[in-house]
Automatic annotation (TrEMBL):
Protein name (database record): Gliding motility lipoprotein GldJ
Sulfatase-modifying factor enzyme-like domain ranges (all copies): 87-410
NCBIfam families per the UniProt record, alphabetical: GldJ (TIGR03524)
Comp. bias (Acidic residues): 486-496
Top-rank taxon, per record: Bacteria
Chain positions covered by the region annotation Disordered: 485-508
């Protein structure tokens, strides 16, 4: 109808040229030109509006029915344009690169030979997680799960960094033991003494808090509820909100569906039932989760290869996150300055005091050195960083060369008899005893109970066949194509076959009925490796490492439940939608 009207208007002007031009004869030439310009502009706008009216985003291309109809029906965010960058993150555009060592393997580890990999676009923390960021996490836990309550005591203590990592039998480091974590002088220094498990828990907490903030801004939940309405039995969790929004905040309706809220999407359908009162994945409001980066993501981001890209090839290779073969800057303005914080030699952790010093003897404040081409700071030096992967001395690029990651353990939501998800309460908290004797909560109140996937999800699948895929093609006998097991249901058989190759010590720590620790140290002389399913990769050099370890390709491992004074971490987040943020591609 709109298109017909537009065509008729245009044709009527063309059909009566004599009448139109007789009017124009009475105008001077300048007015004629102005009139014609305005007429052409008006016709152009009318044509564009007619064209747009036939391709509304709220009209289904599948059925022709209206999407987001006020009377109800299918509701979807058709105005979503771009994933919002969450706090602290920078965008890293994905692509292909050579993962692994491109320099000499002087340590003869042979654990990361060059292989071609591709990673999707993602986001990564601009800096390492700092002491003040981690203290905010500890403060939240202390308020919500007060350690004075015996039931929650282990939650707070399980999150505390190990400040004793600074001690040395022949060193005076008590100043760091007592002050590094909490003193304002170290506020913007990277947090250390944090195990891999603690880093993962921090990322989970951060995801929930940012999601909580997004819902408040959009008017879905009560403003300020993160301060006034939170307790051990009334917390917010993203997964819980998506699956059972009425169970978040302990079912507090005043918080979940506040009166006078600014939720512009809330409507009432034809039957008088409210719709769009809760945000969903389809809303595009909830951010994705923070997590640890995979090893491939971390290495790709650290290299910052975009600065040596020429059209569709890389001009050479990079040894460090900066372009060049040396650790000192070559630019005239900063020539001679160290580009990272690392150990320069025996007994030399920073250099001679003065301009040639790298500015630090232990860690240094984040952003003390120039970022790489992606805008990421300290991807070499300062502290090494945890990544998500379980360590194996091989990267199996023959099986997968896209988003490579070893460590998948697939779980699903536990469903109760009435068909609803099972939510962990303060009485249901289960604590695991780590090899160090430390207790950590497996789930926190308000979270959905997770269980391993079973035959309902794995039957006849070709892409995965069980919940725990950590040991898949890791070089042991079970990875062989000729291996035949007659006891597939026997988990101990699988463990024994794995341990024939990765024969690591197996210490046992338990607690008796009184809560006392019973430690059984493995004193066997037959152990041949420190590699098992509980060791994780950490990347990058630190203030305590020599220059060799600054190469992003270097990989080392450490037990996931232990910490050091030179390993920190940063978070990452996946990206949804387009690969790039640029609307127009740049050739070079």
């Amino acid at each position: 109808m709109h298109k017909l009207a537009c065509n008729l208007g245009f044709n009527s002007y063309i059909a009566a040229p004599k009448q139109n031009f007789s009017l124009l004869k009475n105008m001077d030439m300048k007015k004629v030109i102005t009139f014609r310009a305005l007429l052409i502009l008006g016709l152009s706008l009318a044509a564009v509006s007619c064209k747009k009216s036939t391709s509304s985003k709220n009209s289904s291309r599948a059925t022709g029915w209206q999407i987001n109809d006020r009377e109800g029906g299918f509701q979807y965010n058709t105005r979503f344009e771009e994933q919002e960058t969450s706090p602290g993150l920078v965008f890293v555009e994905g692509g292909t690169f050579t993962m692994g060592k491109v320099q000499d393997d002087v340590m003869h580890d042979w654990n990361n030979t060059p292989n071609q990999q591709h990673v999707q676009s993602f986001y990564m923390d601009e800096t390492e997680v700092t002491n003040v960021m981690y203290l905010e996490y500890l403060d939240w836990i202390k308020r919500v799960y007060p350690p004075t309550d015996e039931n929650f005591k282990a939650i707070y203590h399980g999150a505390l960094p190990d400040t004793l990592v600074w001690r040395n039998r022949l060193g005076f480091n008590e100043i760091m033991t007592e002050n590094y974590l909490r003193h304002p002088g170290y506020a913007e220094y990277p947090v250390v003494g944090v195990s891999w498990i603690q880093a993962v828990e921090f990322a989970n907490w951060r995801s929930d808090r940012v999601g909580e903030m997004s819902l408040q801004k959009a008017g879905y939940t009560k403003r300020g509820s993160h301060l006034t309405d939170v307790s051990a039995d009334a917390t917010f969790n993203i997964d819980t909100y998506i699956n059972a929004p009425t169970l978040t905040y302990g079912g507090n309706e005043e918080v979940i569906n506040p009166e006078g809220g600014r939720n512009r999407n809330a409507q009432v359908d034809a039957d008088g039932n409210p719709i769009n009162i809760y945000a969903k994945r389809e809303s595009g409001i909830l951010p994705l989760k923070y997590r640890l980066p995979t090893e491939a993501e971390w290495e790709y981001a650290a290299l910052g290869l975009s600065e040596i890209r020429s059209y569709n090839v890389y001009r050479g290779r990079k040894k460090y996150p900066w372009d060049g073969q040396y650790t000192r800057a070559g630019k005239r303005r900063i020539r001679g300055d160290q580009m990272a914080n690392f150990k320069q030699g025996k007994g030399d952790y920073g250099g001679i005091a003065g301009w040639s010093d790298d500015g630090a003897d232990i860690t240094n404040a984040v952003k003390s050195y120039d970022p790489n081409d992606y805008g990421l700071y300290d991807m070499a030096g300062n502290v090494a960083e945890w990544v998500a992967d379980v360590y194996r001395p091989i990267v199996d690029d023959e099986f997968n060369d896209f988003n490579y990651y070893r460590g998948n353990v697939y779980t699903k939501n536990s469903i109760s008899e009435d068909g609803t998800v099972e939510i962990v309460t303060s009485e249901d908290i289960v604590y695991d005893t780590l090899s160090t004797g430390k207790l950590v909560a497996r789930n926190l109140p308000g979270e959905i109970l997770q269980i391993a996937v079973d035959d309902n999800e794995t039957y006849l699948r070709t892409n995965f066949d069980k919940s725990n895929e950590i040991n898949f093609r890791d070089g042991d006998k079970r990875s062989s194509r000729y291996f035949e097991s007659f006891n597939d249901d026997d988990e101990s058989d699988e463990d024994s076959e794995t341990r024939k190759m990765y024969n690591s010590p197996k210490h046992n720590v338990e607690r008796d009925s009184l809560g006392n620790l019973i430690r059984e140290y493995d004193k066997s002389n037959n152990r041949t490796s420190l590699i098992n399913d509980q060791v994780r990769v950490f990347k990058g050099g630190s203030w305590k490492d020599r220059e060799y370890w600054l190469d992003p390709a270097q990989r080392r491992y450490y037990p996931e439940d232990m910490a050091t004074d030179y390993i920190g971490f940063r978070c990452a987040m996946s990206r949804v939608g387009s690969k790039t943020k640029r609307k127009n591609k740049t050739k070079n």
